[in-house]
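Progress report, Aim 2. The chain analyzed during this reporting quarter is listed below.
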Amino acid sequence: MTFFQIISKVTGKLTVAIPVAMLAGFGYGALLPSGWLQWLILPLTFLMVYPMMVNLKVSSILDGGDTRAQGLALAVNFGVIPFIAFGIGLLFFSDQPYLALGLLLAALLPTSGMTISWTGFAKGNVPAAIKMTVLGLILGSLATPIYVNWLMGASVPVDMVAVFRQIAVIVLLPLIAGQLTQAYLRKRHGQERYQKEWAPRFPPFSSLGVLGIVFVAMALKADDLIAEPGKLLIVIVPVLLLYVVNYALSTGLARWLLTPGDGIALVYGTVMRNLSIALALSMNAFGEAGADAALVIAVGYIIQVQSAAWYVKLTDRLFPR
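Predicted C-alpha cells for the chain:
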C-alpha cells in the first residue's frame, strides 16, 4: 500500500483517527516534555490549510442562480450562529473564557472542503456549495478578528493586528500558494488530467495536518486535563448543543424557503465549520492559553464528521424530491 493510499484511508476514517490522535497527544504530554511541540504548530498549520486551497475555485463567486441560498447562508453564518455560540459560551464557560473563545472561533469560520463533499454525497447543489465555501472562507477570515474583539475583548486579550497577521499567514499565504499550484498543474497537465489525477491527491494531506495539530493541542493540555479530568466531558455538551441548534435552524430555513438541492447546500454550508483554520488560529494567535480553545475545536471535529455522515442518511426524508 502506498503512502497516498494510507493517508486516503485515514481521511476516510477521521471519526476514529481524531480521537486516536487526541489520546496519543494526551499520552505523550502526560509522559514526556511537550513544550518543544509548539515549534511544529506553524508547519502543521500550512500542511493543514494549503491542500484545501489548491482545489478552491475562487472564480465561482461570480456564478449566479442561487442568490437566495447564498443570502441565507451569509445571514445564518454571520448574523445568527456566532451570537448563539457566544451565548452558549457564556452559559457553560462563564469562568473559562478561552473555552468560550474556542466555541466562538468555530462558529466564526464557516464552510470547508467538507461542505462541498457532503453536499455532493447528499445529492445537493454542489456549485452553490462551492460558492458558499469561497464566500465563507473570505468573509470569515475578515470578520473573525472584529467579532472576537467585539464579543470576547473584555475577557480575552485580543491584539487585532496580531490576529489579522495570523489570518494572513494561515489563510492568505496558503491561498496564494494553492492557486499558483493549481494554475501550474492545469497548464502543465491540462484540465482533464488535473481533475482526474492531481486534484484528489491534495485533500488527504490536509487531514494529516489536522491530526498533527490535534495531537499537539492535546499534548500541551495534558497536564491541565490530568489536574481536571472532567474538562473534556464539560466541553462536549456545549459543542453538541451548538451543532444541534445549527442543524435545526438551517434545516428549517432550507425546507421552508429553498428547493431541495439548494436546501441541502444551505445546511452543509452553514453547519460545516472550517475547524482547520479555527484550530490553527487558536494555536497561533493566542499563545499557550489557545490550547484551551483548541480542545473545544478538536471535540467539534468529532461531532461535525459524525453528524454530517448521519445527516446524509436522513436527507431523503428531510428533503423529499
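DSSP finds 14 helices and no strands in the chain. Residues 121 and 312 are 7 Å apart (CA to CA). These observations will guide the mutagenesis work planned for the next reporting period.
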